[in-house]
Design goal:
By secondary structure, the protein is an alpha/beta fold. It has one domain: P-loop containing nucleotide triphosphate hydrolases (Rossmann fold, 3-Layer(aba) Sandwich), CATH 3.40.50.300. The protein is 48% helix and 15% strand. It is built from 9 helices and 8 strands. A 5-stranded parallel sheet has the order 2-6-1-7-8. Strands 3-4-5 form a 3-stranded antiparallel sheet, with helices on one face. 36% of the residues are buried. The mean pLDDT is 90. The structure holds 2'-deoxycytidine-5'-monophosphate (DC).
């Protein structure tokens, strides 16, 4: 097999399974797992809390520039993949999954100035190497030099079913209809925004996971890694 690429990019729409699979892949390779959506969620949560008007792009950009958000390995064993800290010591990990954040995050992520600030932070982390970075524009904008790129999709209904199951397991009651409507709206905003819209990189390997469970997706990605040895 050729040497493993130092940077692996995994992009795809909401709830396509990219984070779960990216985490598994990173653990298997001994790489850092970095979920770029967490930074957009963190800025959204903090901006809402500090009453920054979401329709003021300049205020949001300045806010993103000044905010201190840190993503660390899990500090509590409560099902989290990582711990997100604001201003050094405030644990905001679970707040980032709230409906309030989910309803506003696509709007914040569509602000070009916010994207500039967060993209440069993410790029700095990614260039250190040995990283699996997941998001919407990792392979196209954040780290176009990634040695391996995946674009993971699944039908919107399959994705809504996964999020519904997660919400139930986590004791966070949401209806399936509400989740489905939220996913459709976020897909629409993520794909149609001007700045870094959701799209596969030209050199990304595409994988539809509608009929696959997590093990199936991990197996498909591992097979793709192995296939690089056998072009
Ligand atoms: O993957 P997620 O659901 O945690 O992403 C949250 C939001 O952030 C989603 O609306 C898309 C946006 N996002 C983005 O625009 N670019 C990224 N690299 C990651 C997330």
């Amino acid at each position: 097999m050729p040497p493993l690429p130092a940077i692996i990019a995994i992009d795809g729409p909401v709830a396509s399974g990219k984070s779960s699979v990216g985490k598994r892949l990173a653990d298997r390779l001994g790489y850092l797992f970095f979920d770029t959506g967490l930074l957009y969620r963190a800025i959204t949560y903090l901006a809402l809390r500090d009453r920054i008007p979401l329709d003021d792009p300049a205020a949001l950009e300045l806010y993103a520039l000044r905010a201190h958000v840190d993503v660390q390995p899990p500090t509590v064993q409560d099902g989290r993949d990582c711990t997100v800290l604001a201003e050094g010591d405030e644990d905001i990990t679970w707040e980032l999954r709230s409906k309030t954040v989910e309803d506003s995050v696509s709007v914040v992520a569509a602000v070009p100035g916010v994207r500039r600030v967060l993209t440069s932070q993410m790029r700095r982390i990614g260039l250190r190497g040995r990283v699996v970075m997941v998001g919407r524009d990792v392979g196209t904008v954040i780290l176009p030099e990634a040695g391996l790129k995946f674009f993971i999709t699944a039908s919107v209904e399959a994705r809504a079913r996964r999020r519904f199951a997660e919400a139930q397991a986590g004791g966070r009651p949401r209806t399936y209809a509400d989740i489905l409507a939220n996913l459709r709206e976020r897909d629409r905003i993520d794909s149609s925004r001007q700045a870094a819209p959701l799209r596969p990189a030209d050199d990304a390997l595409q994988l539809d996971t509608t009929d696959l469970d997590l093990d199936g997706v991990v197996a498909a990605l591992t097979a793709a890694l192995a296939a690089r040895a056998d072009p």
